[in-house]
Amino acid sequence: MAADQLVNADDLEAPLISPAASYHDEHRSRIRRSTSNTTSQVALIGSNLCPIESLDYELVENDFLKQDWRSRGPGHIVQYVILKWTLCFLVGVLSGAVGFFNNLAVENIAGVKFVITSNMMLTRKFGWAFGVFAGTNFVLLMFASMITTFISPAAAGSGIPEVKAYLNGVDAPDIFSLKTFFVKVVGCIAAVSSSLCVGKAGPMIHTSACIASILGQGGSRKYKLTCKWLRYFKNDRDRRDLVTCGSGAGVAAAFRAPVGGVLFALECVSSWWRSALLWRAFFTTAVVVVILRALIDICNSGKCGLFGKGGLIMFDVTSADVTYHLIDLPPVLVLGVIGGILGSFYNFLLQKVLRVYNLINEKGHVCKLLLAASVSIFTSCCLFGLPWLASCKPCPAGLSEACPSIGRSGNFKKFQCAPDHYNDLASLFFNTNDDAIRNLYSAGTDNVFQKSSVFLFFIASYFLGIISYGLAVPSGLFVPVILTGATYGRLVGMLMGSHSTLNHGLFAVLGSASLLGGSMRMTVSVCVIILELTNNLLLLPLVMLVLLISKTVADVFNADVYDLLVKLKGLPYLEAHAEPYMRQLTVGDVVGGPLQIFNGVEKVSNIVHVLKTTGHHGFPVVDEPPFSSSPVLFGLILRAHLLVLLKKKTFLHACTLASIDVSKQFSAEDFAKRGSGKHENIEGIDLTAEEMDMFVDLHPYTNTSPYTVVETMSLAKALILFREVGLRHLLVIPKSSSRAPVVGILTRHDFMPEHILGAHPFLLQSRWKTIRLGKSNLIELFSGLC
């Protein structure tokens, strides 16, 4: 059932013009009797509910495009290859520049806020200090929330679920638009600078994907920023590859982790991968780190404002000779197990909170802003109030940095303490997330933090990270999870004491890895990112071990956080595997009707009627007498191509095959795919009564080799074909030649479990369910053992 667009049921009785030949009258009446498919497909994109549709990675093979391909010489092929590498280079340069700008802006904006607040604390003006701190946070967060709510709701959140769904074949309006790009950058800077417990890595991935998509679609027609030489990228397949490279560039820009960025794109967001794409993705991330390195050299000369280092994450956490022994394995195992439990519980709580936030956000813009305001005030109270619970400590002797650190970042914040004393909890709260992680990762600081302070910071960061995500602002989960994991890891290291030879900074690194594995369930990419962050390859065995354990434990309880977010948003994501119950059904069991079919030479009025009364994007074309001896499937024609034909008005006065050269009437650019979420509509085409009575020869524009399956094929087998090839339409043909040449069309919607189980509820008992650990499971397990 082709149900990948909204359908306007009010247009069912749109008037048609006078009849033509008898068999056309019969065909038209068949179209009129067909009831439209009224299934609408919507999902939560950012913070708004939006219509979505499928992408089509299949190459259209019709007579017109074949003729265009044959006309291209070796020069066009060379130009195409050069263009692909040039775009990857531009994506890397722009992503590196934007990542550097984001970090620099956050460090300086947040730095000014912390310096002013600390200066007021030095003069004992605690009330004014809290007012400035909370007021600045409130203004920054409300600014981020307002521009997101009123300008680009698609920019809310991390954007990773949307990028993941896009690379799986789901498109939505404005997810990669120019306004989304600007709101994502500015909103992320404001939100992170407001001391909200969110990160900038997720938004950076979405931002780089926006850069890749905008370049891939040739710029923006709306803002008159287009390039004709980008016409080779006017298809979903090339844009998909470029967005994949962009997502890897985002990770490289956020963490200076080029290899980790490539592996993140491979492991987390992409649904299709090949060796050529691996090479281009690696080239893109390499360009990113080169740009970052060049810009960091500028900062090293002290030209980057308050903090002078650009604020880019890089933690040299341990000495050059990391040593560990057999006695250290039990603590590492404990870290992995607890990290898996905490990560799965993090996902569980986050899912519950987001359901509540979605109900609040549905009530309108005012409720979105009130929710953001409430969380901002609560966060400011926690960050300013909790350090008062910590006792002051005297500054250690022989330090390489100032203690207490006044007017700058550092491990030693004075807060309310006496001279030559510092507040260790304030040193964590009154810093950006990057600097707090750096403090926790630092080697040689085993006596800097108190257990009670680290425990309080862990509890606060764990729950603040959960309630901060889901607001109508650009926000990420990656850095808050790293921060919370580092806190929990250091706490475990402090509790282990002399039972382990590992220092507390190394425990913090392993804690971050364990919580990332428990929440996000990424192993290879997280392992490499952690190694690139800490610049120490000696940590590899321990990081691998803790990731494997935490992921294994967490998988017992629930899915990874991005899968949960994709489902929560209602995005129709196709998994790489088919569930067992799908093998009990054939494609004929799920394909539905009515089926809208066009003749090879179709009347204009019939085409207009179908386009107005359905939201289908693909229509089978069947040749009937007198163009064939019997009804035969000629191919599939796309809605977008039909709109081009109607707009150009290449009509025939009689029901005959076109005798003119179509290459003289059209160019390949006429049929090129428009930008993400942008489409022509039938309402914008004006036709006269005389034109409505004319005909269109669809043969030159019909894809003559669409993918087809026999109606007896299992649904599981069809799903694998549909996903691996990246289809939007899969034609179902009959097993018997005596029937109509096409039974129906399978779309993404037909493979969704909700649709299948709704139509066949008896399959609920045989549905595959991942084993989850609960009370009943434990009882059954132990009773079985006994």
UniProtKB/TrEMBL annotation:
<keyword id="KW-0407">Ion channel</keyword>
<dbReference type="InterPro" id="IPR001807">
    <property type="entry name" value="ClC"/>
</dbReference>
<dbReference type="GO" id="GO:0005247">
    <property type="term" value="F:voltage-gated chloride channel activity"/>
</dbReference>
<dbReference type="InterPro" id="IPR000644">
    <property type="entry name" value="CBS_dom"/>
</dbReference>
<dbReference type="Pfam" id="PF00654">
    <property type="entry name" value="Voltage_CLC"/>
</dbReference>
<comment type="similarity">
    <text>Belongs to the chloride channel (TC 2.A.49) family.</text>
</comment>
<keyword id="KW-1133">Transmembrane helix</keyword>
<keyword id="KW-0129">CBS domain</keyword>
<dbReference type="Pfam" id="PF00571">
    <property type="entry name" value="CBS"/>
</dbReference>
<keyword id="KW-0812">Transmembrane</keyword>
<keyword id="KW-0406">Ion transport</keyword>
<protein>
    <recommendedName>
        <fullName>Chloride channel protein</fullName>
    </recommendedName>
</protein>
<feature type="transmembrane region" description="Helical">
    <location>
        <begin position="369"/>
        <end position="390"/>
    </location>
</feature>
<dbReference type="InterPro" id="IPR014743">
    <property type="entry name" value="Cl-channel_core"/>
</dbReference>
<keyword id="KW-0869">Chloride channel</keyword>
<keyword id="KW-0677">Repeat</keyword>
<keyword id="KW-0868">Chloride</keyword>
<keyword id="KW-0472">Membrane</keyword>
<feature type="transmembrane region" description="Helical">
    <location>
        <begin position="242"/>
        <end position="265"/>
    </location>
</feature>
<dbReference type="InterPro" id="IPR051280">
    <property type="entry name" value="Cl-channel/antiporter"/>
</dbReference>
<feature type="transmembrane region" description="Helical">
    <location>
        <begin position="537"/>
        <end position="557"/>
    </location>
</feature>
<feature type="transmembrane region" description="Helical">
    <location>
        <begin position="126"/>
        <end position="155"/>
    </location>
</feature>
<dbReference type="InterPro" id="IPR002251">
    <property type="entry name" value="Cl_channel_pln"/>
</dbReference>
<feature type="transmembrane region" description="Helical">
    <location>
        <begin position="277"/>
        <end position="295"/>
    </location>
</feature>
<dbReference type="InterPro" id="IPR046342">
    <property type="entry name" value="CBS_dom_sf"/>
</dbReference>
<dbReference type="GO" id="GO:0009705">
    <property type="term" value="C:plant-type vacuole membrane"/>
</dbReference>
<dbReference type="GO" id="GO:0034707">
    <property type="term" value="C:chloride channel complex"/>
</dbReference>
<feature type="domain" description="CBS">
    <location>
        <begin position="702"/>
        <end position="762"/>
    </location>
</feature>
<keyword id="KW-0813">Transport</keyword>
<feature type="transmembrane region" description="Helical">
    <location>
        <begin position="332"/>
        <end position="349"/>
    </location>
</feature>
<keyword id="KW-0851">Voltage-gated channel</keyword>
<feature type="transmembrane region" description="Helical">
    <location>
        <begin position="82"/>
        <end position="105"/>
    </location>
</feature>
<feature type="transmembrane region" description="Helical">
    <location>
        <begin position="454"/>
        <end position="484"/>
    </location>
</feature>
